[in-house]
Amino acid sequence: MTSAALRSRAWKLLEMVTTPLLPSDYLDLVSPLRAGADLRGRIEAVHPETGDAATIVIRPGRGWRGHTAGQYVRIGVDVDGVRLWRAYSITSPTNRQDGRVTITVKAIPDGKVSNHLVRRAKPGTLIQLDQPTGDFVLPQAKPAKVLYLTAGSGITPVMGMLRDTEFDDVVMVHCAPQPQDVIFRNELHDLVADKKLRLTEVHTDTDGMLDIARLDELVPDWAERETWACGPAGLLDAAEEHWTEHGVQERLHTERFRPSIVVAGDGGEVTFSATGKTVDADGATPLLDIGEEAGVLMPSGCRMGICFGCITPLKTGAVRDLRTGEITEAEPGVLIQTCVSAAAGPCDIER
Amino acid sequence: MSAIDPTAHLTAEQIEELGRELDAIRDEVIAGRGEKDAAYIRKVISAQRKLELVSRGVLLFSIFPPAWLIGTAGLSVAKIMDNMEIGHNILHGQWDWMRDPKIHSTTWEWDHVSPADQWKHSHNELHHTYTNVIGKDNDLGYGIMRVDEDQKWHPFHLGQPLWNFINACFFEYGIAAYDLELGKNLHKRRRKNPEFRARAKAVGRKIRKQVLKDYVIHPLLSGPSFLPTLAATFTANLVRNIWTHSVIMCGHFPEGVQVFERRSIKGETRGQWYLRQMMGSANISGSKAMHFMTGNLSHQIEHHLFPDLPSNRYAEVAVKVRALFEKYELEYVTGPLPKQVFSAWHKVFRLSLPNKKPKVKTPDREQELVAA
Questions:
Q1: Domain that holds residue A87
Q2: Nearest residue of A to residue B39, measured between CA atoms
Q3: Is the bond leading into A179 cis (omega within 30 degrees of zero)?
Q4: Contacts of B288 (CB under 8 A, 6+ apart)
Q5: pTM
Q6: A108, A223, B84, B262: least buried by Cβ within 10 Å?
Q7: How high is the ipTM of this complex?
Q8: Touching check for A83 and chain B: CB below 8 Å?
Q9: Where in chain B are the domains?
Q10: Is residue A17 part of a domain?
Q11: Which residues in chain A have their CB less than 8 angstroms from residue B56's CB?
Q12: Distance CA B12, CA B367 (A)
């Protein structure tokens, strides 16, 4: 018998001993980060960056497959005893020696997870992880000239890129309310001193919002640069329009942290048939929130319609995509993204 | 059912007010649920797993009498924790709010021959909805006993002390049969029903796994301790069964607990539902350890009022609920475990014989409410 077959037999025997639990339920007690376990991580340190942002150093479990600069990771954190999932950009370089990864989180008003991570997260805490994902990444071939256009916490994926790969000619335009709100400011200025980066800070409290037309003056050759932009919807919408107008939209790569358009309609009665719960839902609240409120075990992810971590079968009825207003009707095999779908009449969600 | 309705002094309005006060107690706990509660259940689960692991480890050497004793005691406690404070309460959805897929009513499975989903249906949906309603709540004597004067006597009931004793010893099998509604479904016509057959198969699979673990694999792993380990796991299952059976009997069978007629729950309001739960359940008084080992079902009244509140909160809720019983002049049935067990058994013996059927009138609250 091969060793793999032997191992699988031994495992079957173990399962017979631990039933109705699994051997992993016991192994998790002593080694939650082992290979083969559900992917988790342990918070090892929390470093404040600004008044409302902090970098979380995470030791990922053995199953971590590594990331590409610019990608994000979904993490599940227990806040007041409730498991909440959010997506954050990875800010550590891919070649970090100790195998740790960092995310940098900015506390947003009423943000349950972001405030918890920035202000209350304790080293030693276990968190749930997903494999890194996202296509806001650097290309294989090095572009000659690069522009990073960022605002607020939109700097985080770009920091992951800056720390990961050096380019010959890099310009960054970053917007933040005031100098002290600029995350990674010291590190950025060090890069500038080393002549590895040209940086323009736009302080919106004094300078006002960045008018995209000012790029001509700030970065005269912007249209020739491979550009990565990340920030609030307003900035990204303006950038997309601007790049398209000049016919260079293929050089612009954007990453959004929030869904952009909200279209609401009439709601309806939502049944979660696997759990046996029925609740009234309005036409503007994502079904993910409705389910979570009702105590249904809803898978979730980025909560903005990009990661597909929340997809769930729609058994009957219809739902509306909150970004486009598009109606999806139930058919066998139809999966919906609950984080950007609201009830459009009575419907049955298989959870 | 006693000849006098102990809630007759309450007006329909008072009952609705009582309902609102209970809702407020519930809301307060829900608003305060948090990190501490989550840490509590995780700690209990982790302790149970370690205890079971260590006990089974010790039993590998059960040929030595001290090892047999310690291992059997530990395994009995571990099985009781699994079924009561952990399994019963998780399957009630008490911890669903944590959104942890590993501690959730839809994913949990327990050390019990009745599969979790079948038990959830008969227990959560039927028993907790129709608590103590004759003909609707099969927990009233589990279909093999008469536990109220109003239930019809049959010569079969003469043997009910014996039936109850056998049920206590093999309680998990009794529950599995009960969840399958075996009595009803064994009729020739129903036996072929595909839905019943699928459920029976699921029970069969669960029994096979449980039996294999406790009576084949674990003893085999014990090598020369095969027979002592077999005896140990049998004893642990027996202890668990008798303990859980006793606790559950204390919940609804002791003297002073009310039962209800089918028609009395027609058009029942939220307040009336609460009132039925209050009058249809009985508590057990005792130490913290005792409450823990009963899975906090010693707070049966509070559990029936709020089946999905985390069990670690029932003790604090009980203080407020008891104050409401006093305010509305209702009897809070409670007592130490031996007294309640005796009371329940006494009833089982007494009602094995026929009695004169007392005539009772429950006030028709539906009309009263319309009038109010």
A1: 32-129
A2: A81
A3: no
A4: none
A5: 0.90
A6: B262
A7: 0.89
A8: yes
A9: 12-32+112-371
A10: no
A11: 17
A12: 9
